[in-house]
Amino acid sequence: MSLPTKRSASASATATATTGTASTSASNNFLPMKKAKSQAASTCSPLDHNKNGLHHSEDVVFDPSSMSLDDDPKLVDYRTPPATANLSRKKATPPQPAKKLVIKLVKAKPTLPTNFEEDTWAKLQSAINAIFLKQPAPCDLEKLYQAVNDLCLHKMGGSLYMRIEKECEAHISAALQALVGQSPDLVVFLKLVEECWHDLCDQMLMIRSIALYLDRTYVKQTPTARSLWDMGLQLFRKHLSLSPEVEHKTVTGLLRMIERERLGETVNRKPLGHLLKMFTSLGIYAESFEIPFLECTSEFYAAEGMAYMQQSDVPDYLKHVESRLNEEQDRCKIYLDTSTKKPLIATAERQLLERHISAILDKGFMMLMDGHRIEDLKRIYSLFLRVNALESLRQALSMYIRRTGQGLVMDEEKDKDMVSSLLEFKASLDSIWEESFSKNEGFCITIKDAFEHLINLRQVCLSLCWFDLNWLQY
């Protein structure tokens, strides 16, 4: 057995000195593997001659764990994690919060009370009856509204809609049947119908306000279902057609009132407007009222036109026609439907003007021209324009110029004054053309052609030395 060398003795002393710090450095959990290995190799190098690589029992064996990390300043790391760090040098994960255990309670599906639908409908039916009978509601309107909501939310909207329709139909039918056999006075009867209509409108609006949720859900989701308002109108129209006496008396009363107004009587236009709007809302205005109204209008003005043409002169008749047309336009603005305006005015124009074009021209046109009646000629022009009769007026003007001018040209006794007379005649026509005939180009050509005809009648007398043809230019 070889004795330890000086070098091994110093190593032994070093190992002994560091024994006290071994336990302290071990707590750092960091092993300086490379340095420890090199130091161990250098310390034990004299023992490397042992083939078996075993140290002598008295040799000091270097324990790397006994070496302090502070022995070598090169290995000091100020970023060294705390002693509790993971030895694998993996990044520490923060602690996760504990998961809460949530227990969900399964709610039992609520069950409807027995006879829920029947009891709720009984409450609503009582309220609808009170509305039609003009009685106070049996319970608060908000509760009724909520009752409708409850039925709709539980998929009972279809049944509720049919029940409301059936209840409304019974009351509407009874209201119209009550009008049968009422007062023979048409004015009084019209007031009863007007009152019935107003009641229906108010009642359906009240029912709709209660069942608004039904209108906004079930009705919108069902293509075949009408809104509650339209449903009420349809029921009223249905039972009005099933009561022909009521409808006939209503239309007859309306026509009678309009005829009385045309004859100069003062009538109350308010019920006229309300009832005609009723026909429009029900969609029966054209069929039930407009057709017989236009027939009565045609008969009325046909008779009046014949009578006035025989009794009045042309200026008065034209004023009467103008007044009648203005009256009919006012009726369209006040109480007739706008769709009636065009056929109504056309009917009045046909009976008062078109049928009497020739009579008006033959009876009064020459008198109006001779009298230089600017306003009356302007009126006849505007009225004839409405019925596309300007061609007849233009022909009458041409005939008048030729007839009147021929008297001036062919009178040899007045040859001295012929030119001045023609110039005066021409000035008069100019004034009428500008003020009464709206400077119509066709009438200008008519005047020019008529004067050329007059010149051809007396070519010798109307030589250029006497007459300057420039006045023919317009």
TrEMBL record:
The biological processes this protein is annotated with in GO are: ubiquitin-dependent protein catabolic process
Record-level Gene Ontology MF annotations? ubiquitin protein ligase binding
**Chain ranges of the Cullin N-terminal domain:** 121-459
Superkingdom of the source? Eukaryota
Question: What spans are recorded as compositionally biased (Low complexity)?
Answer: 8-27
Q: In which pathway does it act?
A: Protein modification; protein ubiquitination
Keywords assigned by UniProt, alphabetized: Isopeptide bond, Ubl conjugation, Ubl conjugation pathway
Tell whether Transit peptide is among the UniProt keywords.
no
Q: Which Gene3D superfamilies match?
A: Cullin Repeats
Can you tell me which family this protein belongs to? Belongs to the cullin family.
Q: What is this protein called?
A: CULLIN
The organism named in the record is Salix koriyanagi
Give the organism's phylogenetic lineage: Eukaryota, Viridiplantae, Streptophyta, Embryophyta, Tracheophyta
